[in-house]
Amino acid sequence: MVGAACEAQPRVGKEPVSQVSPDEFTEFYAASFRRLVGQLYAMTGDSTEAQDAVQEAFVRAWERRAKLDAHGSPEAWVRATAWRIAVSRWHRARLGGLLMRSRPGPVAADGPSPDRVALIDALRKVPAEQRRAVVLYHLCDRTIAEIAAETGVPAGTVKARLARGRAALAPFLRESAAAAGTTAADGR
Fold it and tell me: Is residue 126 situated within a structural domain?
């Protein structure tokens, strides 16, 4: 019976094609899903892969059900499509494995310096618009005009935010510099 279920003769000639209705497709799915999974399992050796591939093939068949010939062999089409899906996944998995083996190992990155940690901590204590202006000007090397254009405020507002932001940062950066100096003096 399995051999008969695997045989599919392609239709030849200009015979009229009878389209598969949604009800016929539902019956076809119910009658053939388990059988197709069993056949693909025998071909692939992986029951999960077989079920996934057959399910994907049925999704594609549903999308093309108007073109499937009810009197032809839609089961053969689904089986062939499921096989191609499984083979395609094998190829992608194999290529992915080769790429993973060929790439160099991760490079150990140094953590942020104490100065950078202190700067980030201090920036968190400054109001958001002032922080944005300070970062854009000092860390991103943007001009006053560029910052004004990016933030949508006049250049005078950018200058005021920079001045206020620097003033707000100063005490926090002095504290961290003093703490670093004390730590260095203590020999820690």
Answer: yes
